[in-house]
Amino acid sequence: MPEIQTVEPTRNGWRGAVEIPGDKSISHRSVMFAGVANTPVHIRNFLHAADCLSTVGVMRALGVNIEFRNENELIVTGRGFHGLTEPLTVLDAGNSGTTLRLMMGLLAPQPFLSVFAGDSSLTRRPMGRVRQPLSQMGARIFGRSGNNNLPLTIVPTEEKLHGIHYESPVASAQVKSAILLAGLYADAPTTVTEPYVSRDHTEQMLTGFGVHIERTGTSVTVFPVEDGGYCAPDMITVPGDISSAAYFLVAGSIIEGSRLLLRNIGVNPTRTGILDVLTEMGAQISVQNEHMSGGERVADLAVEAASLHGVSFGAEIMPRLIDEIPIIAVAALFAEGDTVITGAGELRVKETDRLHAIATEFQKLAPGSIEEREDGLIIHGKPEMQRAQVSSCGDHRMAMSLAVLGASANGVLIEEPDSVNISYPTFFSEIERLS
Ligand code: S3P
Q1: Domain 24-237 has CATH 3.30.479.20
Q2: Which of 63, 161, 291, 349 is close enough to 85 for a disulfide, judged by CB 3.0 to 4.6 Å?
Q3: Percentage of the chain with pLDDT > 90?
Q4: In the chain, what are the domain boundaries?
Q5: Residue 363: pLDDT band by 50, 70, 90 thresholds?
Q6: CA–centroid distance, residue 19 to ligand 1 (Å)
Q7: Pairing state of beta strands 213-216 and 219-222?
Q8: Is residue 348 predicted with pLDDT exceeding 90?
Q9: Which residue in the list 241, 323, 395, 418 is annotated as catalytic?
Q10: Other CB atoms closer than 10 Å to residue 181's CB: what's the count?
Q11: Which residue's C-alpha comes closest to atom 4 of ligand 1?
Q12: Over 90: is that where the pLDDT of 294 sits?
């Protein structure tokens, strides 16, 4: 990939079918959960991208056998529920918050020491939000800056972890999942209550592994696994990632003359906030062939260009579209009127501070169009657009959003474009094909 990626303005609409890569969240979980099973699991449509490969690397370092049949298909032969082994080296979570936070939960109850490191972005991100509830369960986790940052060390405990009821101050699937995974090994049931329900892939997939899980309202309870109570499915087929589909849902809506079909996309209701917001903005999106596959809802999404108008949304829907704010901000720039986003403070602790990155980098293309607020953005639609050089800030979702913005306006030059390798390595070749 070049050091600076140029994206030219699109002359005609984007038309045709797009194969969207596998879901990142589900790919991570498939390898982790299969890794502690005692029968092999065949995983199809796995996301072959840097983040999920960080999880593969970590699970291999813990003794799990992972064999790729091709880039998107692998066989994971687990070590059994108590079979992970002490890693010989530091575990590298790379850029991946999901790898680190979920593995903290899985490793906190293990009878060996593990040490985690990651890249410069992950090293800045807060881990106290996971460490704190795990410590309440009895886990021993130590890290830099008051145990909040990488590098982190997990020390074995003498007793089993204790089941707790944790009221999480944030709606975060990573925090919830870490606690639930530790809860599998605890001495009593563990409950997590969130302010709003975050993505529930952990709950759905663990249920498929025979784990007893109960949900009421915004609370979920996991029961400790008893002997023989953890049984892997033979096969997991990962649906397409709605967070990656989002770039095409927006491009297809704002580039005149577009008509796109995105097949086999995961439409788990905890992830479909993007469909609700775009539809409210006036987008023409139809959900077709909806069906269930391995506990997850899957459908084809068809989109065609439409005129959009600004909307307001806030904290309540945020967990259902948390990763889509940058691309929704692109849609908002092409909408009539203002879009007001509140309750989005969590974006400040993603791969980069996304509220700040959107405000600074988008405005190089659309000056005077975005007001940055402490917990959100106000976006004034239909500004004058110009061509400019911008930075992805090393953040995959910023890179892809800036590319769609440039393609829909007067073109863009993107620094650090290779950040797309985190979740969508073929993104630039795909948009080149469509333009
Ligand atoms: C993820 C949860 C979200 C999301 C991330 C993936 C997951 O993070 O932003 O890209 O797989 O559980 P939070 O749950 O911390 O908001």
Answers
A1: no
A2: 63
A3: 99
A4: 4-22+239-434, 24-237
A5: very high
A6: 23
A7: antiparallel
A8: yes
A9: 323
A10: 27
A11: 323
A12: no
